[in-house]
Structure formats: C-alpha cells, structure tokens
Hints:
The structure is a single chain. By secondary structure, the chain is an alpha/beta fold. Helix content is 60%, strand content 10%. α1 runs parallel beside α3 (83-112), α7 (247-276) packs parallel to α9 (311-336) and α9 packs parallel to α12.
Amino acid sequence: MTLLPANAPPVSPSRPRFLPLLLLLFLGSGCAALIYEIIWLQLLQLVIGSSAVSLGLLLGTFMGGMCLGSLALARLVPQRCHPLRVYAALESVMAVLGVTVLFAMPAIGRLYAPHAGHGLAGILWRGGVASICLLPPTFLMGATLPAISRWVESTARGMSWLGLFYAGNTAGAVLGCLLAGFYLLRVFDMTVATYVAAAINATVALSAFVLALFTPHAAPREQGAAPAADSRPNAEMAPPPVSVPGSRLVCLAIALSGLCALAAEVLWTRLLSLLLGATVYAFSIILAVFLAGLGLGSMAGSLLARSRLRPAIALGWCQLLLAAAMTWAAWMLTSSLPYWPVNPALAAAHPSYIFQLDLVRCLWALLPATILWGASFPLALAAVAAGGADPGRLVGKVYAANTVGAIVGALAASLLLIAWLGTQNAQRLIIALSAASGVVLLLFSYWRRPSGETSNDNFSFGLAKFVSLALACGLVGYFVGSIPPVPWKLIAHGRYLATYGEDRTLVYMGEGMNASVAVTQTEDGALNFHISGKIEASTVPVDMRLQRLLGHLPAMLHHDPRSILVVGCGAGVTAGSFLTYPEVTNITVCEIEPLIPKKITPYFKKENYDVVHDLRVKIIYDDARHFVLTCPDKFDIITSDPIHPWVKGAATLYTRDYFQMCRERLNPGGIVTQWVPLYESDLRTVKSEMATFFSVFPNGTIWDNDDNGSGYDTVVLGSREPLAINLDELQARWQARPEAVQSLKDVGLGTIFALLTTYGGQASDLKPWLAGAQINTDRNLRLQYLAGWASDLTQAGSISDSFMAYRKFPDNLFVGSEHRVNTMRLVLEAKSKIRR
C-alpha cells in the first residue's frame, strides 16, 4: 500500500541513507514546538486568565491552528515544490513567529484589557486574542507532517518511515516538555526558553535546506495534465485517484480516537494533579508520559502497517483494546495508586526522589492507553492510502480529523463533562465511544470481503470474527459498568492520602469545571475546606485567625473603607469579616470555581456571617488576575487569599506585575493584603514572595500568624502611600465598631495590642534578609518553580524565626500619644521574648 501517486518517481537511491537524519530533524521540530506551547499558553493565561473557559479557548485555538495547517498545505503548496525546502521554510517562519509572539504579547494585552468583559462578549474577546496569537504559528506546525510526507512515501518502507517521523516528532515533544519544565523555565525565563526554541527551529530549517541540495525532487504529473514534451512515447497516463472504500469511516474513527485521547488526558491530568500535587513539575511529567506513549505507539503502528494485516481492521481492534486500557487507567488512578505507600516527606532529602516515583506511577497507569492511541494514527494513514492521491492531502485529512476530534474532546471534558457528569461517568462515556468506533469499523471491514476471497474461504473465518467481536462488546459493557468513582479522600488529602492519619468524615464533595472540592469534619467538630488535594480553609483557630486577619487588619487600619475586593472566596470568612463594618458598601468577591460560593461557603455560614447572601456582596466568577487586569473600578482595600504558589497557575497572583495592577486599582489611601504561607515551602520561596511584594510596596509590612509560638503563615500589607498607624485614632475606630471587635475576639485578637503585636517586620528592616531574593515576574514566573521544588517541606518555624530576628520597633509606623506608643513598644518586646 502506498501514499504517493502511482506515477510518482521512484525514491532516489541516495534518499534512504538520509532518512535517519530527517528523523532527527523531526525530533528537533517536536522539541521546539513543545517549548513554544508551554511558553505561549503560560503567556496567554496572563492576559486572558486561567479559568476553564480561557484554557479551553487556548487549547482549542492551538489545536485548531494545527488542523487548518494540515488541511491547507496540500491546497496551498504545489507538489512540484521540494518537500524539504517547504519544510525548511515552515521551520524558519516558525522561529520568527515564536520570537514575535513573545514580544507582541504585552502590546496585545494592553489592547485587550480596556475592552474585555464577562459573559459572551468576554469569551469572544478572549477567543479573538488567542486566535491572533496562536493561529499563525500553530498553522505552520500543523503543515510540517503533510509537507514532508510528499518526500518519502513511495514504498512500503517509506510508509513505515512516515510513522517513525511522527514518533520522532513526539519524542522531541517529550524532550521539549521536560527541558522547558525542569530546566529552561526553572533556571532562566520565558525569553531564554523562546530563544532556545527558535534556535532549534533555525537549525532544523538550515539542515533541511542543506539536505534538499543532495536529494533532487521530481514532482509527479498532475492529474489530467498532458504528458510533457520529453516524456517517453509509451508512458502511461496517471490513473484517476482511487478512493479507498470506508475512508470516511476511518476518518471518523481517528477523529473519535482523538476525542477520547484528549478527553482522557484532561480527566486523568485532573486526577493525577491530586495524586502527585499540582506543581509545574507534576504537569510536565504527566504530559511527557502521555507524549512518550503516543511516540512508542506510533512506532509500533507504523511497523504494523507494513504487515499483511488489513490496517482498517488493526485500527478497529486498537479502539476496542483502548476500552480495556482506559478501564485500566481509571482503576489505577482511583483504586490503586492513591493507596501506594508513597511518603511525600521523601522530598525533604531531594525532590528528585518524589519525581522518580511520580514518573513510575504515571507510566504504570497511562502507558497502555497512550501506546494504543499512538498506534492508531499510522494505521489510519495506511487504511486510507490509495494510488493516485496526493500524500499531502491524505496525511492532512487524517491529521485534521484526529485534531478536530481532539479539540472536541478537550473542550467537552474541561467545560462540560466533569462538571455535568463527573469524572466517573465521563470516563464511562469515552470508553463507550472508543469501543463503538472500533465495532463499527470492524463490522464494515469484515462485511467488505477483500478481492480474491471466496465465500467458502470466508465463512468459517467470518463466524469466528463476529463471535469474537460479540465477546469484545460484552467485555466493554462490563468495563463501562466497573469504572470506580473518585474517592473523596483523594480530593480531600491528595498526595497525603496514604500517609494521612487523622480521621475525618465527608460532609460534601463536588467536581467543578476548574477544581474538585470537598468539605470534611473532624471528631471535634472542626470543618475543613479542601481543594486541589489540600486544606485551603478551616474553622481551626489558627486558620480562623488568619482568615479574619486578612480582612480586619486592612479594615481597621484604613480610615474609611467602603469598596472591597476579595480575591478568592474560600470559606468566605475573610469576605464576611468586612460585613462587620457599617461603612463598607460594596464587597466584590472574585472566585474562579463556581462550586465554592454556591456549595462550599454556606457550610461556613456561622463563621462568615452568611456572606454570599448579603446585598452588599457581588460575586464574580473569573480568574482573579484577569478581573484585576480588566476591571475599571477602584477599591479602598484589596485582600487576596490565593491557593499555594506551588499550585500550577497560582504564581500569577504573586508576580510584581500583578501587584502593580493591584496598586493601580487602589483609591488614595488604599491598602492591599496578601497571604504568604510558610508551611509547604522553604526559605528562598518565602523570600521571593516577600521581595516581590515589597518591590511594588516598598513601605510594606509583615503580620505574623503563628501556631502556639511557632511559624505557620503570614500576611503582607502594602499601601499606596506610606502607612502610619495612629494608635489614638485606631482606639476610637475600635470602640466604634463593636461587631468587628467581637469578630476579632472570637479568634483571640480581642484588643488593639493583640491585633498589632502580630506585626512581624517592615520592608526597610528586612533588606539584608531579602538580599539576593528572586523577583517573581510575568516574564519568568519563577515562584511556581521555586515553590514546586519545596511543596512537601515543613520549615515554617525556621522561616518565621529567620525574618522575626530582624523585627524591631518601627518608630515610623506606630505613632500617637506617648503613653500608647510606649505601651505598644513594651507589648511587642514582651511577645518577642516569649517567642525566643
């Protein structure tokens, strides 16, 4: 079976020895493409947000561009063009566009911000920005495989090389994923990573151009064209294009294969992020394993396509076997791997110990299914190949069908299936779809008798085929019914499930578009809110004190707080703290996951004063960074309690650029507070967070929330103008707000001095301590790599002691009558002695 027209010139004898070099070029191309993908998605999330809608639009646009490129290549580039020169041109332009996107993104963001909004209009604006940025380069990416297919596909051996090129491209993608996630972006930044990818593109382009000089290309005669003047007199005219029976069915099967693959990737990445921890390193490992499986499968499929087995039948059985492989993955991810005795504390020695275990667990669960998905693509190519057809068109058609299915699967899983059906039923659906596509393809292939095969030859074989198919369908039905639900303990405890000893009972569990959440209760009655496999809020005293400190501290220090922005709803305790101030007229809560205000916050109604039903409260469902970027309003107070910075995407709420946006959204006299965790962190991570904040608010201060004298977490506070706390005026405000005072008393901060002795230092005093700290910016997002490296460490006490050693009485901060200032000095000194 061949992919090239019947009248194509034979492969030059010099070509086979260059095929391994071309394989290396495809490896480089795949490496650069994945580096770009990680950078571009990261950059665009800064502009249009990290919500499920934004990510869906990004992913859809990315794959949509590749789909258009694969279809357009054969229509825009004639066959007479040397495939290697076309490939070199594509890689060259891709290098230019890669660098262009990096520097054009800030300008696009500035144009986008004034016009963006919410609802349908906002979605259209986000989609437009994603299209402008991603369609041109991804269009070129999608065209590379159809372009090169015109060079090698004239023999059965060439057919196998095409599959190997796809495998090589995927192997390069694995390398690019790991190189970007573990080195380029961790050690350098997006600029350096982009230059590396562009350099790889340029090297590939130059190599392909040089290779073209040694491999002359003779284009096949165009269909319907008259013979050339120097043609041999007896040369045969090219036969008309042959359409393989069932080619549309094959395209439908490969489209459903792409749909199931990307839907499963979304579902399984969600589960694995709970199991491994949602760090950038975990996501890099998951993606690398998924791509590695596709590459291995593509190699196997390309070799299988050369066998005597009919490729359509092999493709059909691949889809049926995928039902078993997806069932295996579902069972492993929910009923086996969470209970492996893996202790995250191993990371205390070195994070690589945990990364190795993460890699093994991903391979164990995902490899069978990804190998089968990888094998499906070359089998589909072989199944539709026909003499007299342009190989570029054939490859483009199959590639586009697979990509369109992938787009549908990714969008459906991230935006609809998880939130509407849940992970369990979503997995059941894609297993059934995969099996159904395989059954239909096999029935058609079995029914259509190959030429030369008689009914007598076919009867006994045919009966066995249909019996085996019926048995396979029965097994698929069993698989669909056996998919286990996601255990609530995995959602609640994540990577600590196997080692978590505390006994809790489940109160609520839900799976939303952006996150899976749970509420549990301990034996002593304390409620805990879990998200991303960790506790984000609770009614435990130390957590209650932090949540109210984030609200009451800026409200008490501000002279007249009226408009408030709360970033992150959580249990609603921080937002509810502002309800105790009668002068507050407007509270905007920005939350990315709709389940939290609707389902989680009501369980904490007593502690948050039923904040979600207060008329002064407006809830915005959006990525907080995107809201701050596009919101025209200004606020007296912005208080932020985001998730831990090691969670992928959260570091965008700790960048200098984000803090600068917050500063611009403040009214005169406005105050910003931000949560900085000390647990699940290390010293350089905390220094980076504080140094970044103080680079925007140089007069900022730290307010410590310890746990029985030991470090736990902190609040950093900044203001537009230098802050001076007049103790006499504060005493007057304290007496005029009895509800707020009672709210503070409930968490052990019942006096002015109890509140103010949480003071932990100011930026000017901490300059020696912060020397050399890395500043987290939009361009490098350094914090997510620092924090991800330390997400399993327990160093809160030593971190707190290190910066508290620099604390001294701030004469420029506490002002007022001599008596109150001296009292404040004595109280603060007494607390310092107790800590020591």
